Amino acid sequence: MNTAQLLALDRIVLVLVAALWLGAGVGTVMAGRDRHTRLIALGLTLAALAATGLRVGLAVALSRSGWWFAADKLVLALPLVGVPALVAAVAALPRLFRPSPSPATAAPTLTAGYGALGGVVAALTVSHPVPPVLSGVLVALVAVGATITWRLLGAASRTGDAKTGDGTVARGRWSTTAGIAVLCAALVWAGLSAWSSRIPATLDLGAHHRGTDIQPATATSAVTDLRGPATGAKVRRFTLTAKPATVTLASGRRVEAWTFDGTVPGPTIRVRQGELVEVRLRNAMPDIGVTLHWHGYDVPVGEDGVAGVTQDAVKPGGEFVYRFLAEDPGSYWYHSHDLSDPAVRMGLYGMLVVDPAAKGASTSPTAASPGFPSGASDTSGGPAGSGSSTGTGAKVSDHTVSTHVLGGIQTVAVDDEGPVDGLARLRVTPGTPVRLRVTATDNVRRTLGLSGTPYRIAAVDGRDLSRPGEIGDRRVQLAAGGRYDLTFTMPAAPVLLSVDGRSDLGLLVTPGSGTAPAPAAGPLLDIATYDSDDHAKPGGSGRPDRFDRFDREVTWILDRGLAMLDGIPTLAHTVNGEVWPRITTPVLREGELVKITVANRSGDVHPIHPHGHHVRVLSRNGVPATGELWMDTFDVGPGEVWEVALRADNPGIWMSHCHDLGHAALGMTFHFAYEGVTTPYDAGHASGNNPE
Ligand code: C2O
Ligand code: CU
Predict the structure, then answer these.
(1) 280 near 631, Cβ under 8 Å?
(2) Which ligand is nearest to the CA of 692?
(3) Cα 611 to middle of ligand 1, angstroms
(4) DSSP of 583-644, one letter per residue?
(5) What is the pLDDT of residues 237-258, one digit of tens each?
(6) With a cut of 70, which residues of the chain have pLDDT below it?
């Protein structure tokens, strides 16, 4: 069983354990009645013991995948049920083999039931690291419940005996009072934490530099100083206007959308390496703020487009000009980053492509990249896509392909052709090299398959792989927010890029005739071990980085649980047991090499997206990654552990969040900062900015 399956099984067994112990407890109270009831109580107690043992076994197995998967169980949940369970096994169980046990026999059994219930509460509220106060409250509640039960059952055992005695009654009152006191304390504590979790009217995400151990000598700079260059050799100017529009899908269905320039996706921004990109954003939406975030393009922080962190949201009627030098060829996308979840879902996004500077150049350090044709394009100024040429002169058929659920309808869009709720088509002459820059723009990952010809993933998240192998009928999973550049040479028969295994959704690349092949149905490819292991090759950007000595280590434990989100108890998505904005912010020093470990204790998929940086994938589930895998959005599945390296080479205050934007809105939003970087912007309630 893998970690995710162990976690899922544990979630079932934990409820079973509670039900069995409580059932056994009630059965034992009544066991004096007749033999039948006593045998039921006996059976339930044995079953409860077995289930508890199973949970212990599961926790031990989980701890082998990482202490963070098991700590809460081994230090809190299991002792809560295990200690009374042992007492029950020793003291109560033997009495159930003899007729007429007294009701008091049930006390340890019921206590195990309370402990198991505490375990259910712990599973809902406790992540990693285990919080001491909450744990203390749980232990106290179980202890008080146990005390009351002992008193009551002790008294009940003496019922024939009319004199219950003042002492017993007094002690009973005392434990009831204690119980009420603990309950009240727990409620007050819950109330206080709800109150303190409210997002304040003003929230300064640059406040990390105060009250820390940073020397006063550290020069500070504001995100507003860290902007793109004002001038450049060649400036490419674009204007994007956010406005509501009715978008017509290929089938004729119409969808109300929020758009850039009236289309979904917005116009593709396609530039050449070395050009200065200048994008003027205008907001013509009636009532929402808008920004532009360059997803995966590592811009200077002042251009990152996060409302409340790097700028104020552009209000209706307002505008903002973004400038950055297009130095890194590859596939990227842009989207609004104020209330991102509804904004992106409704359509406020588009594609960004940076073509390599010169003919013969490649997005890869090796021009003759076998992933083949990064190709130098000749599309500047023209419509996006379609005509690129490789260094050898062959025209590359080069296109953006994005998937999106618009108005509840799954669509695919190729270049600026508009959304197709079915199979988009592209005509390509046999023998032509083809590059499809696929972007998943929804909150969930997409499974892609290409059938009809062998293909490769030439680039991931805008970075070329070193020696990507041929992918036969295997399918690939693309993280929400991630990009894969798929390459192949056009055969004489149609090629099908299928989305989620469907034959009626995706892109049919056709030479003009022939029938579509069936969707690829092979096993899933593991992106972390897909690229070749080529040790001779230097780091992706030419830096001989070594990834075995780190200046700093950061751990992000992802989980799902009850948490106070802006004053409201919420089944939230947590990081290190906390939710936005209380997740601890790592403060980096420029130049550091940081190792980030991300472990997912939840049953959900979390595509983690650190802004402003690509991370080098080191390992996934303990298996070292091969080749040259750099990502800006890595998909951490249930029970998975990813280790990545981040070079702190882009000073700023950087959002970092799950790119299931619904999860980000439910707490899984955090950030990391650089020493001495401040922001004049405000993410509090009164600011009108909503970073997520
Ligand atoms: Cu595409 Cu902060 O995200
Ligand atoms: Cu998530």
Answers:
(1) no
(2) 1
(3) 7
(4) SPPPEE-TT-EEEEEEEE-SSS-EEEEETT--EEEEEETTEEP-S--EESSEEE-TT-EEEE
(5) 999 999 999 999 999 999 999 9
(6) 159-172, 208-219, 359-394, 533-545
- Residue 134, Ramachandran bin (φ over 0: left; ψ between -120 and 50: alpha; else beta): alpha
Strands 615-620 and 349-355: unpaired
Cβ of 293 less than 6 Å from ligand 1: yes
What's the gap in Å between 284 CA and the centre of ligand 1?
A: 22
- Please tell me if the CB atom of residue 609 comes closer than 6 angstroms to any atom of ligand 1: yes
Cis peptide before 581 (omega within 30 of 0): yes
Provide DSSP, 476-537: EEE-TT-EEEEEEE--SS-EEEEETT-TTSEEEEESSSSPPPPPP-SPBP-GGGTS---TTS
**Which is nearest to 422 in space by CA: 413, 435, 432?**
413
Residue 445 CB–ligand 1 contact under 6 Å: no
Characterize 629-643 residue by residue with b for buried, 16 or more Cβ atoms within 10 angstroms of its Cβ, and e for exposed: bbbbbbbbbbbbbbb
Q: What pTM did the predictor assign?
A: 0.90
What is the distance of C-alpha 136 from the center of its chain? 30
Cβ of 483 below 6 Å from ligand 1: no
Cβ proximity of 305 and 679 under 8 Å: no
Token pair in block for residue 219: 């020069």
| Beta pairing class for 463-464 and 456-460 | antiparallel
At 53, phi and psi to the nearest 5? -60, -40
- The answer to whether residues 518 and 503 touch, using CB atoms and an 8 Å cutoff, is yes
Using CB atoms within 10 Å of the CB of residue 523, give its burial: 0 to 12 exposed, 13 to 18 middle, 19+ buried: exposed
- Compute the distance between CA of residue 134 and CA of residue 116 in angstroms, rounded to an integer: 16
Burial (CB count <10 Å: 0-12, 13-18, 19+), residue 341 = middle
Query: Which residues on adjacent β-strands are paired with residue 438?
Result: 401, 484
Helix pair angle (3-29, 78-87), 10° resolution: 40
Q: Whose CA is nearest to atom 1 of ligand 1?
A: 295
pLDDT for 566: 86
CA 555/CA 642 separation, integer angstroms = 10
Strands (DSSP E) along 336-482, which ranges? 349-355, 376-377, 388-389, 395-406, 409-414, 419-420, 423-427, 433-440, 446-451, 456-460, 463-464, 475-478
Identity of the amino acid at 663:
H
Q: Which atom of ligand 1 is nearest to the CA of 481?
A: 1
129: cis peptide before it, omega within 30°? yes
CA of 191 to the centre of ligand 2 (A): 27
What the block records as the tokens of 169 is: 């009654």
- Does any ligand 1 atom lie closer than 6 A to the CB of residue 395? no
CA 34 to chain centre: 55
For residues 366 and 389, give the distance between their C-alpha atoms in angstroms, rounded to a whole number. Answer: 16
How far apart, in whole angstroms, are the C-alpha atoms of residue 588 and residue 355? 32
CB 498 within 8 A of CB 449: yes
Token pair listed for 423: 């199979």
Structure tokens at 16: 């079973």
> Per-residue pLDDT tens for 327-342?
999 999 999 999 999 9
Helices (H), 338-472: 340-346
Q: Which atom of ligand 1 sits closest to the CA of residue 633? A: 1
Spatial distance between the Cα atoms of 593 and 543, rounded to a whole number of angstroms: 13
Dihedral (CA of 107, 112, 117, 119) sign: positive
Structure tokens at 547: 């990834």
Nearest ligand, CA 295? 1
